[in-house]
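It is worth pausing here to work through a concrete case rather than discussing structure prediction in the abstract. The textbook approach is simple: state the sequence, then state the predicted structure, then interpret. We follow exactly that order.
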Amino acid sequence: ARRYALVMWDHGDGWRSMPTGESKDGVAPIKSFSQDLTGSAGYTISIGEWGEYAAALGEMQRFMGRPFDLLGFDACLMGMWEVAHASMGYGDFLVASEENEPGYGWKYDDFLADLAATPMMTADQLGASIVQSYYDTDPMSSTLSVVDLNALADLNQKVNAFAKVLRANSASFATINTHVLNTQGFNTTLSNTSKVHRDLRHFA
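Step two, the predicted structure:
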């Protein structure tokens, strides 16, 4: 094939610290997706820098001789900077949602019909078709987006600089936290005060 896409499906929970009560020490981070609920261990695929996600994509990339053209998460709460950062170098575009996804997920019969009709479409065009068919099916589910992973390096620099300034002003932590709580949050199963997924642009 001239282009390759990899779509990962199943439960997603983004990248966050576990609230007290969800883990033994109260601080163990969640950096994973595709939770297997059939076993007692609740196995997931780790997505940190040295996790199974990077290891698997690296092996596939070595086999193909190049990165994927498109990576996709048909899973909840994976449309965030941390996940995009972990995907850099393994694909050109990322499709993921900030908010929870509907149980039926993406509208495969629509965007695959577009791909069959226009097999020479580019990766970003396929991503746009995925997003548009998703939105057309349920306009309330509007947080699926296409991210250009090759443009992420500039954002990484700005996020790191922003974080350093915030961390250097400990006297302002209470004010910063107030702004966090007033920032658009995601995960409709949680109350607003406990939502840990926040929109980066809105916060900044």
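Step three, interpretation. The longest strand covers residues 68-74. Helices lie at 52-64, 81-87, 108-117, 123-137, 152-168, 173-181, 200-203.
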